[in-house]
Each structure stands twice: as C-alpha cells, then as structure tokens.
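tool_call: predict_structure(chain=1)
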Amino acid sequence: MPTGIVRRRSLACCPPPRPGCPRRTSGTINQHLLDGQLQGLTANLNKARRKLRELQQQLRRWREGKLKGKRPTLAGVQNQVRSICSAQHLKAILKTAVKEVRRGIEAAFKQMKNPHFLHWSPMFHWTDSKIRVHALYCVLALTLSSVLQREVWHKGEQLSINRLLEELGGIRETLVIYPRRQGQRQNRTATCLTRMNPLQQRLFSLLKLQRYAPISR
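tool_result:
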C-alpha cells in the first residue's frame, strides 16, 4: 500500500513504562489522499504500458525489416525497459506481477505432469510433426480447463483443476435399451443421468449443463 494512506495512533491506558499493559490501536484512512495516490499510480501504469507497447511495435517493425538503422542490442532494450518501469511504486507492482506469472507457469508444468488429468505422457509419437500436434493438444486442454476453473471460481466454487475434472467426470449418462416387443421395429430406450452428489449438483447448475442433458426417448 502506498505510504501516507493509513495513519496509526496508539492509545495507552496506562504509562508506557509498565510492562504488560493492554493497549488499543486505531487506524484511520484519508479517502481523499487514497484517491489521489491511486489516481497517480494508475496514470503511471498507463504511461508505462503505452511506452512498452511502442517499444514492442518498434522491435517488431525492425524484425520485419520495416525499420533501418543499427540493430538493437539486448542490453539497450533492457535499459529502455528499466527506464520505463522506474516510476514510483511501479517496480514493486511489476515484481509482484512477475511472481504471480511465474507461480502460474510452475503450476501449469506441475499440472501437465499429473498422471490422471491433462498429462503430457505417455505420448506414443516419435516424429517431430506429431509431437508438435500432441503438444498443441496438451496446451489447448490445459487452457480450456483453466478457463473452466476460472469461471467456477468466480461463481464461488474454489476447486483445483483435478478436483473439478474429477467431479465433472463423475456425471455420467445412462442408456437403458429395452427388448423389442412384437410388432416394434426399434428398441425402446430411456436415458438419464447418474445420481449426483451435492457438489456435482452445484457444478451442474453453475455451468448450465442441463442444456446438454439427455432427453428421454
């Protein structure tokens, strides 16, 4: 939190020298100061985003041959990025964001090693082209599962991907085929869903899976 937003005041009920004396602390927020600091922080973020986009477009145009001149160096680009991100509180925000992104990437790799859901192996492919297709399928499955998990989290069910897929996989469709009677050309059938536990019922309702439910015939 930016400095200057919260002011604390200690109210002692007895002189400070006495050890073990109970104390009460109250905090106050200056809303006007908070709004001003948030406005300045938002302006710095927007300015940094704009400059980073301009730098990205410039590097892309140079790579495509649309810009002439001296080739940009890694050190030069890093210095430009440091200069753009040197605004007040911006370094701390970016450091926190990088940690969150890194944590997400590590979780994705860990998920793809899970032996039950979204696992990379066994691959059963040996040519480069088929391995690339296999990688595409794995990443696509992880992306769709992450989007599904995010939607469920926003609706109040904080489940891991493995638990979510396990519960959804437990919702099965049952098809009963009756023997044909005399004069019938086709077997009479009946379809229904298996009995769901309370969590499966909530997921079924949150994701509006009723539209995919079987219709008895």
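agent: Residues 31-63 form the longest helix (33 residues). Proceeding to next step.
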